[in-house]
Write a structure and sequence with these properties.
The complex is a heterodimer of chains A (476) and B (232). With 476 residues, chain A is α+β, with helices and mostly antiparallel strands. Chain A folds into 4 domains: 101 residues, no CATH class; 112 residues, Beta-Lactamase; 70 residues; 156 residues, Histidine kinase-like ATPase, C-terminal domain (Heat Shock Protein 90, 2-Layer Sandwich), CATH 3.30.565. Chain A is built from 13 helices and 12 strands. Chain B is of the alpha/beta class and 232 residues long. Chain B contains 8 helices and 12 strands. In chain B, the strands form 3 sheets. Chain B has a 5-stranded parallel beta sheet with strand order 2-1-3-4-5, with helices on both faces. Chain B has a 4-stranded antiparallel beta sheet with strand order 6-7-8-9, with helices on one face. A 3-stranded antiparallel beta sheet of chain B has the order 10-12-11. The radius of gyration of chain B is 18 Å and the shape is globular. The two termini of chain B are 23 Å apart. The mean pLDDT of chain B is 88. Classes of the chains: A alpha+beta (476), B alpha/beta (232). Chains A and B meet through helix 7, helix 8 and helix 9 of A and helix 1 of B.
């Protein structure tokens, strides 16, 4: 800088230039220096040029004194103009550098963005996204942590980074801002932010990028991670749908293949009954059709249970009067109940049930059939409905018999797990005749938001009590 | 088609069911022909022009719905579908596509023959009467008067429209969608619950014991069926 001012001075003197020409020459030198070295260099050059200008070109020459007042004005005007101009030039230069830097940053982010989102989904995509981000911000190694602040896990490690610093990591996660210690070259904690929520933190080793770039890179990586998560979820849902479709078609096939022979059997039995009318044949046919009906009902029940448990069917509750369920149950069991009196009692202010009518009917049918089989012919069976005395929003539906009471094995069966698997306990299996019907009744009751209990009846026999939701308050 | 003996077409992929049904239909006084699937069923339908079609829904080649569509394109020959419990959607779809009735496997022969009789009787009947008469119930469509056991029952226009629709389909199922389509002209806000509310109040006015309906029976999953037989 002093060399430039000296060169201009020497050049001016050797040319014998006048003060006006020198003023322009000095100004040119100051502008050049400000452009090259910025505002501080420009200002110093302006001061040096002013001194030289005065010393060499203003009368009396060779001194820093000025004889004519007009020359004072000229000299200070020069100083002011040089200072101001160097300042303007320096500002313009800084702006240009800033724009250049910004452009580079945008380029970095664009490349990162393109790299992250053009990549196709495959195993290891997360690690690759993290590595790409680290490269973009000029870091060589780092750790990607995902999850929530209190339940985070290391998703990917690139290079050989040091173990992340707990406090700084937590700070980045909670405050959702880039955290770094003062000084260059340390670890920087960049939150992955999606929708105002931190979904992870990238701990990057010594990145060379501005805070703005780090923040943007964190957001981009956050979006890439979110995309991976959504893609994985979509794949999972599709797999679920496919397996549900498979279960549906399997159940359909089973139900068709089981019911077709049953239908053929039923038609044949009925057809025989129409044409073969000897007393003995009629008796056999009655038994045949009774058994056929039982088998058909079991299969219906099992398929309905399989549908419920596979989540392919859901109970459709509506208001059901207990009396209509009782009537339908007796109708379905017409053959079995022949010669058995059934007493029906519905409490005067008993509310309707809030339950799926067909499932509720099956509950009562199964329990009534069990009761009929447990009771010697001729002894009455009872069906009763009344509001639950403890909870007016529930109704007790009871099937009562005067049979031998509740065997232990049946109680155990009822308390057991929901699966219809037989245990190795053969004794229990034998004495628990009707266990399947019981299990079905229990499952259907639970599917309707209710429960089933078997109670010993005072005076001998069993009370099968189904508790179901009421459609309205008692007496409402 | 004028025939002395009505012709019934039975379409089912199970040979035993096919055989039993054709035999029993013949014994009940009908002519019966059988087909093993929808494709064959359609060929027989076109060649023989039966008076009633009884078809299974799930079949290997062209299912019952495809056959139903072909029958409906040709005219209004009554169709009874054989459906399977647990696949209520199929049954409702068949009814909405124009099937006239259904029985659920395993069904009883007696039930199927009764349904067949109802359908054949309807097919032979002329235009609907001005006054629908049932045991204990009279619906005068022109004067919009309903008399039950000698007393006039006051119904809202919606209730009357539902009753007329069900009674003019006596013995046959009417789906919720059909009710919404006819009574509400398919207004988009109408739901199954709306129909249930109106049917509930209709039953309270009409039925001696609403819990044990004499006239309007519920068909689970499907809709309703008018239970009383029309007086000749």
């Amino acid at each position: 800088m002093p060399a430039t001012v000296a060169l201009v001075t020497w050049f001016g003197r050797s040319l014998g230039a006048n003060a006006t020409t020198m003023g322009f020459l000095y100004l040119l030198a100051v502008l050049g220096l400000a452009t090259w070295g910025g505002w501080a260099v420009g200002a110093t050059a302006a001061a040096a040029a002013t001194l030289c200008f005065n010393y060499f070109f203003f009368h009396p020459f060779g001194t820093l004194t000025i004889a004519e007042p007009a020359n004072w004005v000229a000299l200070f005007s020069f100083l002011a103009a040089a200072t101001l101009a160097s300042r303007l030039v320096a500002t313009a230069r800084a702006r240009e550098e800033e724009a250049q830097r910004r452009r580079q940053e945008v380029e970095i982010l664009y490349d990162l963005c393109f790299g992250l989102f053009a990549a196709s989904q495959r195993p290891g995509a997360l690690g690759e996204a993290a590595a790409r981000t680290l490269r973009a911000i000029g870091a060589e190694s780092g750790t990607l942590l995902l999850g929530t602040e209190d339940r985070r896990e290391v998703a990917s490690v690139i290079g050989e980074p040091p173990v992340p610093h707990e406090a700084l990591l937590a700070q980045a996660w909670m405050a959702r801002r880039v955290v770094k210690l003062d000084g260059e070259g340390g670890t920087v904690y960049i939150p992955l932010e999606v929708g105002g929520k931190a979904t992870g933190v990238l701990a990057a080793e010594g990145p060379r990028a501005s805070r703005a770039i780090l923040e943007s890179a964190g957001r981009l990586l956050g979006l890439a991670v979110e995309r991976e998560r959504l893609l994985a979820e979509a794949a999972y849902l599709q797999a679920m749908q496919e397996s549900e479709a498979l279960r549906t078609s399997l159940l359909r096939a089973v139900s068709h293949d089981l019911r077709t022979p049953l239908t053929a059997m039923r038609l044949e039995i009925e057809s025989l009954g129409r044409h073969l009318q000897t007393p003995h044949a009629m008796d056999s046919l009655r038994v045949l059709s009774l058994e056929q009906e039982r088998l058909a009902r079991r299969i219906d029940n099992l398929l309905a249970l399989a549908r419920l448990e596979a989540g392919l069917a859901h109970p459709r509750p509506e208001a059901v009067p207990p009396s209509s369920i009782f009537r339908a149950a007796r109708e379905s069991l017409r053959l079995i109940l022949e010669g058995r009196p059934v007493e029906v009692r519905v409490a005067p202010r008993c509310p309707d049930l809030w339950a799926d009518p067909s499932l509720t009917l099956e509950i009562v049918v199964n329990l009534l059939e069990n009761a009929a089989r447990a009771t010697p012919p001729g002894r009455p069976l009872e069906l009763a409905a009344s509001p639950d005395p403890e909870a007016p929003t529930r109704v007790h539906v009871e099937i009562l018999d005067r049979g031998p009471g509740v065997p232990q094995a049946v109680q155990r069966l009822l308390a057991g797990p929901r699966e219809l698997r037989r245990t190795g306990d053969h004794a229990a299996g034998d004495s628990a005749a009707g266990g399947l019907g019981l299990r079905i009744a229990k499952s259907f009751a639970e599917a309707n938001g209710g429960s089933l209990a078997l109670l010993d009846r005072p005076g001998g026999g069993t009370v099968a009590r189904v508790t179901l939701p009421a459609a309205g308050e008692v007496g409402a | 088609m004028t025939r002395v003996t009505p012709l019934v077409l039975v379409v089912d992929d199970d040979p035993s069911i096919r055989q039993t049904l054709t035999r029993e239909l013949s014994l009940a006084g009908y002519d019966a022909v059988a087909a093993a699937d929808g494709v064959e069923g359609r060929e027989v339908f076109e060649a023989r022009q039966p008076d009633l079609v009884i078809t299974d829904l799930a079949m290997p080649r062209a299912d019952g719905l495809a056959l139903l569509a072909a029958v409906r394109r040709a005219g209004d020959t009554p169709v009874i579908v054989l459906s399977v419990r647990g696949e209520e959607e199929d049954k409702v779809r068949a009814l909405d596509l124009g099937a006239d009735d259904y029985v659920t496997k395993p069904f009883s022969l007696r039930e199927l023959l009764a349904r067949a009789r109802t359908q054949l009787r309807r097919a032979g009947a002329g235009p609907a009467d001005e006054v629908l008469r049932f045991p204990g119930l009279e619906i005068d469509r022109a004067r919009r008067i309903v008399v039950q056991d000698g007393r006039e029952v006051r119904l809202t226009p919606t209730e009357l429209a539902i009753l007329e629709l069900l009674a003019s389909h006596a013995g046959r199922p009417v789906t919720l969608r059909q009710i919404i389509g006819t009574v509400w002209k398919g207004a988009p806000a109408t739901t199954a619950d709306t129909v249930r509310v109106h049917v509930g109040s209709l039953r309270r006015k009409l039925e001696p014991d609403p819990a044990d309906p004499r006239y309007i029976g519920t068909e689970p999953w499907v809709g309703y069926r008018f239970l009383a037989d029309p007086l000749e």
